[in-house]
Structures are given as C-alpha cells and as structure tokens.
Design goal:
The protein is α/β, with parallel strands linked by helices. 44% of the residues lie in helices and 18% in strands. It has 7 helices and 7 strands, in the order αβαβααβββαββαα. The strands form 2 sheets. The chain has a 5-stranded mixed β-sheet with strand order 1-3-2-6-7. The termini are far apart.
Length: 169
Amino acid sequence: MKNNIMYVFILSIIIFFLSETSPYSKSSIQWHSFNSGLVKAKKLARPVVIDFYAKWCTWCKVMDKKTFSDEKVIEKMNRDYVAVKVNMESNETIYYKNRKMSPNQFSRFLGIQGLPSFLFMDKNGEIIMKISGFKEPKVFSAILGYVRDGCYKKNVPFMDYMNGKVDCK
C-alpha cells in the first residue's frame, strides 16, 4: 500500500514537471498596474508593454480573447516583458516623469488616440514605440520579438523582421 502511494506521488511530480514547457509559460499573461509594473521592469531590467483598454471597447475584448490568449504571445510577454494594463475608466493614479495623472491624462500625455493601443517602454520608462488597433497573434508576437531584439534601434523595417529577412540579434 505504501509503495502504491509513493508511486502515485512520484508519478504526479514527474507529470507536473513535464507539463511545464517553460518556466515563463503560464496559462495567462501576468498583468501589472502601471506603477508596480514600472518598478518591476527596472528591477528585472525588462522592457514594458502597456495595453490601454476600456471595458466597452469591442476590439480590446477581441485582443484579450484572441491575441492575449495565444501561447506564444503569453510566453513572450511573461518571459521578456513586464506586462501592464491601463483601464481608461479606472480611478488609478499614475505616476510618470514627476507627474501624477489619471489614465485619461496619461494617455493624452503619451498621444494615445484610440483603443486598443499599446505602448512599449524600456526598463527605465522611456518610450520605444506605440501602436494601435487590434493585432493578430502572429503579428503581435513578431512585434514583441522586434522590440526585444532591439530592431527599432537599428531602424530595421518591421516587415523585413517579420518576414525573416533580418535577424537583429
């Protein structure tokens, strides 16, 4: 009887570890608030990707359901970035560049003009680039790689990167 219990226990542990394909893969993206996300990005020396959204935004919901549930996007976001969500309807106070702002003030300060919008920042909170509109998982995954690999610093055209014509590493 003791041997059967031990066998089941060991088998359970083996199955658990084999099911973990990567220490960074989770079933969902690990989202943070802006303020805590910027602190974490600096600590981990990772860039930040910010999702500006609202509950009424149809394409924001499609982005969550289709793109942010994609395994490759989840893995890249959790491994290479600090992911931040900014709800445009929240009462959150955002602290950025010695300013105290609401989400709407923050988005206007950054020039965000529609939802969904995505802002990429370096580990120090400096803006890398911003994009807007729904992005298919394949495209968003390529954007994540483009920023991670520093292609924007080398002025590499995104389509060349996405189509495998340029490797920025």
